[in-house]
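2024-03-11 09:14:02 DEBUG pipeline.ingest accepted 1 chain
2024-03-11 09:14:02 DEBUG pipeline.ingest length=260
2024-03-11 09:14:03 DEBUG pipeline.predict start
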Amino acid sequence: MKTEEWFTVTKIDDSTFALSELGHWEQVHSYLLIGEGEAFLIDTGLGIFDIQHVVEQLTSYPVEVITTHVHWDHIGSHGSFATIYVHEAEADWLKNGIPGLPLEQIRHDVGRDITKPTPNSFNPATYQPFTGSPTALLQDGDRLQAGGRELIVLHTPGHSPGHVCLFETNTGYLFSGDILYSGTPVYAHFPSTDPKVLLQSLQRLSELTDVMSVFGAHNNVRLSTAILDDAGQAASALLGTEKACHGSGLHTFGQLTLQF
């Protein structure tokens, strides 16, 4: 199987593409933003196939990777790129792995419910999540530039301590990573998550102005901006209540379902 048969490329506009791995139960999306002479890649997917091969078919420019968060399904091909940004709260995770997350669990999850052929080089039993040092650390409010494209870094913890969303002001695109998507629950029930902090991040996102499109990291590529209202409703309904804690179950607000 060729790499390009594993990835589904969706053209968002002439210089923005979603690179999706729909043959895996995670249905992960990474996003390529091409500027003048350079480009950004938001996350690098599962690592079952090397996403760099698809990126090279779309642009010959140097590519810098921006990590929404350091979970294995978003950093799989980080090792193929020279420049990697990650929020400072997860720099140690990138270097050393996530404490308390067994490798056996990662290997189980990467290898299950796959509906497309995988390369001979892929073996779930020997799969190794990427570890390495970031090139640069991100903080809330940072502005990243690539060939006339500017992304504002929004620190949105809760799903993970260093989770970030990325907002492009000139297009109104909000790349929301794993804190805002539809189709399956947003997870905040693991030990490394924090339901209360996630709700605070959702409140922040709901207050953004000039958002024209929302692009999540799983399931549907383009989301209705109404999901920002759903995020605000979730925060209003759950913050300050006994439900804003681990073990309180599923909470649905419009397009958005949270699992605490």
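2024-03-11 09:14:41 DEBUG pipeline.report The mean pLDDT is 96.
2024-03-11 09:14:41 DEBUG pipeline.predict end
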